Amino acid sequence: MRYDVVIIGGGPSGMMAAGRSGELGARVLLLEKGGGLGTKLLMTGGGRCNITNNTQGPKEMALRYGKAARFMRTSLYEFGPAEVVAFFEGRGVKTKIEEGGRVLPVSNDAGYVLDVLVAYLDASNVEVRLGAEVREIVKKNNSIKALILAGGEEVTAGRFLIATGGVSYPASGSTGDGYAFAKAAGHSIIPPRPALTTVIAEGGQAAGLKGLSLSGVKVALYKNNKKVAEDTGDVIFTANGLGGPVVMDMSRAVGEALAGQVAPRSGSVELRLDLAASFDFKALERRLIEGLDKAPRRLPEKALEELLPQRLAKAVIEQAGIRGGKKSGEITRAERKRVVGLLKEFTLSVRKLAGFERAFITAGGVELSQVDPRTMQSRIIENLYLAGEVLDIDGPTGGYNLQVSWSTGYVAGTATARRRVFLLLK
Known about the structure:
Residues 4-414 form the RsdA/BaiN/AoA(So)-like Rossmann fold-like domain. By secondary structure, this protein is an alpha+beta fold.
């Protein structure tokens, strides 16, 4: 059977595109090499599935995607957060809004989101094949003629969509096949890197702090002593570094700094934490003096415990070079200023990012200038479309990355179906 549209990848963008294209009348085949659809979707948000974010309109939301903002604007206007919520609520998934505008199912169960998408495929008469691994794309001139599956079967169609995702969460089956397919078709690939992941510090800088969680921390990223990014939010110390929403949101910039893309020469990459962001230096010093004066015979870390957890207070005192056993009343002016300096700029030297196995998403992918944002159609191969994480788009935590899948998948599905109508009329 010859199909109008063949889609590679049964993740969020692939399912949305397949359902939309089939809904508009196209004969659609969805190929998924794994044993089930939406494997990674079931893992998002700790299994709760943060489907989108409702804090901003399309224009403002697009800005959260950095250099991909202009590319994302069109698809967000066509199928943005409001449309995503309407899509799922209209199919029986009630939603709720949590801190930061995160939109989740009331059930806190990603399985209900997947059930809606599977039902959408069925209602749109999409043929789904599981365990269908694409091995080769057969190209002629500037068009794809067929796909060759692992068993040697040749699949033909009028249009093809790559929606294979990235390489994060390899346990879910993500292997980055789509990058190879797109490259074989002539597309340029921005080297994939882990994104929304934790940072690993040099040596044992975070030793003893594992599990500590802090709110309202101002985190600044420095490359060669030049500030290149800054944000405020929650952080969590890990066994070998730092995590938490604000750090994960900054991980793309960290990766670029480590790769030498922020500054022209190599050098140190650091995260500097303001642990007392609500105080300026002088006010914080006055607060510390008051704490030290209250109990001059206590250990100085006790004076910090109103500001910091005990383990972190002890680490600050140690890094300030204050000898063990020294009492608060014995602290010198120079030592006091070192403590305040550390509270305002607690520094971790970055060794690397945690790998793809711990990353929520992938940064990098198909170069956006080679894709039409109005249709997700390739500018290189006339009957090829691309959607989702395979593109060089990544956003912050809070539902922004699933929104990319919904928006680009919906636009691609619409475009592939309308192309069929155009060809029939022609």
